[in-house]
Amino acid sequence: MTPGEDEARLRAALADAHREDARHLPGFEATWASAQRRPDRRTAWRWAVLSTALVAAGVATWLVARPKPVPAAWPTVATRWVGPTDFLLETPDLVTLRSVPTLDPRGLP
Amino acid sequence: MASVELERQIAALHPASFAWALACTRWNATEAEEVLQSAYLSVLEGRARFDGRSAFRTWLFAVVRNVAASARRRRWLESREPWKQLLGGPGPDPAEPVLAEERGARVRRALGTLPARQREVLDLVFFHEMTVEEAATVMDVSTGTARTHYHRGKLRLVALLGPEDST
Known about the structure:
The complex is a heterodimer.
Chain A: H1 3-17, H2 21-24, H3 28-37, H4 41-65, H5 76-79, H6 94-98
Chain B: H1 3-12, H2 14-24, H3 29-45, H4 56-79, H5 82-88, H6 105-112, H7 116-127, H8 132-139, H9 143-161
């Protein structure tokens, strides 16, 4: 069989396969109208994106604007370290040691 | 393209598009109608837009083919949902041709055994009278690939049809 004969045969075979197509062909108007009636997936997608964005914005606002917990004040005792040998500094002349003597400039020569 | 003109062109190609949808769905008429509806919806929603880079028919057939492929993938996923198998067992194969008893059923069965791309290229070339280049555009493959599928498909279909169909 030549390639040309093969092609003619296949053309006829495909025509046979499609011979009954018209019997099942839906009307164009009905198909077109059904397509128009179907929910717009683009609109649904936009709504989904918008809703997600709104939820995300809400969560972000709450995170930023929520009242910050006040940090607990450190107890004074805990922040003032007392060494075990501090008592050695408690001498009778503590006042003298802690005060800085000032010199009266008028008394200077 | 104006929507009225678009609708007019689609209407003119409606029978050919349905025939192509049938070929893409292995001659399942219900499925082909759904595919065509979804393809029209893609056009209406602007998801599929004709940009004039190919003939209008080539573009529309490519849209139909893409929609059919998506539907096939969705069906495949649905058929693998484990709860469906637990509840009702495997249902009828949606790809089963519903027109099996009609004339040409033997050719359709033979076509059904071919790989999808071979079947598609043969249908586009021998029924829709497209060139292999146009078929390649519809199938979104290179011309060389389409030509390979065309030659392999031709040889295989001739062998499948057997000598009795030679008249």
